[in-house]
């Protein structure tokens, strides 16, 4: 009992350390400019604080300044992130929009930019791209409420998958065979890795659909979805037979030759191979709905299909005595149901056309998808290489399956906390491109959107990512005892303790990385994201070579830490130095226009 109390006290102390450390880092980041967005709207107040707005200035100069400020204000007055049709414009103060502002002025001074640590040109060089004064972090103003409204259904959708995965893991663990758990984990990793090769489809599709939907172009929106499905059909015709007939070769990427877990992994993977096409349909359908800012429908579909999967698991595994293949059959059934529902709803909402699905698209219409997909493919290859290397190193630590089973448990801990952050990443992929489109509201005839509004949205998302990363990491540490009850094997619990703690701590970094990379996808910075991920993969491969021989499974998770730290550096470079939403690039773009 003394050991249990000491362990509990240690977990509480670690969680407290994460929270306090997060608050301290939050303050530092706030001072360094990673702050949420808030501006005042009073144009006279803007003029009063503008360094070049002296009343002694020539009349022509004052008129030019007024024009710049008025045009710039049009980029900021978005009253809804989720629905452009309700966006309004006002020339007075709108304290309901940003009640947590740090001040009440929109400043365009060199000093305001320098305070954020960026080398920003002076006001004349900015030529209207004002540096907004930013308030504190998420404070439940209207922007936060809109983000939460969109994010909650996406979080729910992402939560369902890992929770059902936890149910699968629970029932396979009930078999009391560590090799069965290791085999299922290996097969799942291979299937996921193969699927990641085409995961550019949902990422690019969501961005393209969001842009066309923001413009109100229904035909182009339908084209983007149908083209993604057409490409998905073609890929599945190759992927499914390749995975079915070459299961041994695919599994050799994660399992050493003669590994005992192969007997469980092979039949599982052969069955899951048939889920390739329905999984692609579901992902494209999910991307299409969130691209049009409908995030509730995918949750309902996913919930229905996965509850069906959860009900089938014990029947297939134990009642019908199918074992691990039974878990694969239950998952396949859920994927087929999900795909059929998506196709039916997409057709009902006229987001797809049967004629376009069977007709090869023209190169001109397919080019944006192919161009973005080709750039993201390098990222997907890098991610796959990382996860396959992690799986292979984990499987090679011991032949008993204990390390692999413990790693699967740590991954489950990691995923349950990470789903919230991953959901916000996908929200960033649709919110940022939607905010970047400068357009005229049909009802108010006011100009909405633009680069500065997109930057405001990105800043707020990053703030949410950091806060939630700290909170989720702390919560995961406190819930570890409940997680460990998923397996009856004490040796697996012991091996999973430290990796699970590391996985929880890494959520702080993940909050910034996941959302930052979602912003990169939303801005169309596909190649830069891919190069950043490739660099992180090289660092992770070195860490997997260096750490595991010394500290075992813990070294694998230290490799994950190296991987995400390098990705975080890539996010920083994109947002502060060379990304389209960096103040330097915004100033240059406004100046040219």
TrEMBL record:
Main location per UniProt? membrane
Q: Name one GO molecular function term.
A: xenobiotic transmembrane transporter activity
Q: Which InterPro entries match?
A: DinF-like, MATE_fam
Q: Where in the cell is it found?
A: Membrane
Q: Name one Pfam family in it.
A: MatE
Query: What is the protein's name according to its record?
Result: Polysaccharide biosynthesis protein C-terminal domain-containing protein
Q: Give the similarity note.
A: Belongs to the multi antimicrobial extrusion (MATE) (TC 2.A.66.1) family.
Keyword terms of this UniProt record: Membrane, Transmembrane, Transmembrane helix
Q: Which residues cross the membrane?
A: 150-171, 191-209, 229-247, 267-289, 301-321, 327-346, 461-484, 496-515, 527-547, 553-574
Give the UniProt entry's GO cellular component terms: membrane
Its topology with respect to the membrane?
A: Multi-pass membrane protein
Show the segment(s) annotated as Disordered: 44-63, 109-131
């Amino acid at each position: 009992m003394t050991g249990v109390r000491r362990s509990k006290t240690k977990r509480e102390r670690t969680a407290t350390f994460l929270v306090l450390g997060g608050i301290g880092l939050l303050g530092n980041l706030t001072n360094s400019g990673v702050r949420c967005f808030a501006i005042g709207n009073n144009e006279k107040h803007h003029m009063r604080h503008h360094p070049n707005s002296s009343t002694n200035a020539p009349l022509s100069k004052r008129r030019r300044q007024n024009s710049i400020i008025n045009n710039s204000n049009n980029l900021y007055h978005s009253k809804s992130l989720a629905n452009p049709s309700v966006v309004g414009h006002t020339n007075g103060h709108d304290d309901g929009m940003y009640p947590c502002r740090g001040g009440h002025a929109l400043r365009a001074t060199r000093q305001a930019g320098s305070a954020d640590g960026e080398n920003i040109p002076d006001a004349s060089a900015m030529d209207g791209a004002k540096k907004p004064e930013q308030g504190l972090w998420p404070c439940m103003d209207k922007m936060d409420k809109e983000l939460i409204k969109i994010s909650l259904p996406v979080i729910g959708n992402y939560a369902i998958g890992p929770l059902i995965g936890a149910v699968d893991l629970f029932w396979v663990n009930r078999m009391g065979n560590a090799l069965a758990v290791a085999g299922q984990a290996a097969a799942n990793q291979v299937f996921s890795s193969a699927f990641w090769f085409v995961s550019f489809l949902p990422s690019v599709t969501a961005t393209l659909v969001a842009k066309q939907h923001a413009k109100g172009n229904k035909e182009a929106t339908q084209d983007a979805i149908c083209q993604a499905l057409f490409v998905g059909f073609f890929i599945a015709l190759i992927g499914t037979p390749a995975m079915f007939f070459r299961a041994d070769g695919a599994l050799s990427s994660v399992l050493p030759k003669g590994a005992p877990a192969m007997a469980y992994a092979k039949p599982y993977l052969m069955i899951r191979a048939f889920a390739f096409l329905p999984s692609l349909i579901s992902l494209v359908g999910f991307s299409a709905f969130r691209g049009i800012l409908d995030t509730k429908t995918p949750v309902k579909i996913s919930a229905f299909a996965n509850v069906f999967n959860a009900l089938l698991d014990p029947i297939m595994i134990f009642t019908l005595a199918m074992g691990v293949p039974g878990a694969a059959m239950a998952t396949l059934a859920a994927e087929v149901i999900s795909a059929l529902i998506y196709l039916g709803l997409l057709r009902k909402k006229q987001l797809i056309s049967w004629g376009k699905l069977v007709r090869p698209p023209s190169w001109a219409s397919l080019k944006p998808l192919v161009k973005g997909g080709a750039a993201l493919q390098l990222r997907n290859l890098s991610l796959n290489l990382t996860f396959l290397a992690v799986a292979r190193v984990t499987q090679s630590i011991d032949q008993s399956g204990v390390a692999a089973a413990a790693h699967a448990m740590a991954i489950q801990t990691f995923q349950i906390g990470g789903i919230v952050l991953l959901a916000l990443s996908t929200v960033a992929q649709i919110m940022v491109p939607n905010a970047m489109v400068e357009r005229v509201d049909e009802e108010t005839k006011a100009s909405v959107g633009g680069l500065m509004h997109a930057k405001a949205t990105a800043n707020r998302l990053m703030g949410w990512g950091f806060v939630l990363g700290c909170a989720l990491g702390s919560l995961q540490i406190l819930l570890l005892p409940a997680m460990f009850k998923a397996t009856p094997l004490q040796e697996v619990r012991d091996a999973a303790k430290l990796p699970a703690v590391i996985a929880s701590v890494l959520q702080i970094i993940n909050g910034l990385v996941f959302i930052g990379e979602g912003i990169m996808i939303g801005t169309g910075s596909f190649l830069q994201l891919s190069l950043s991920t490739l660099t992180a993969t090289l660092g992770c491969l070195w860490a997997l070579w260096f750490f595991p021989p010394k500290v075992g499974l813990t070294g694998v998770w230290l490799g994950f830490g190296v991987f995400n730290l390098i990705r975080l550096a890539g996010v920083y470079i994109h947002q502060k130095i060379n990304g389209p939403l960096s103040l330097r690039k915004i100033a240059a773009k406004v100046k040219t226009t």
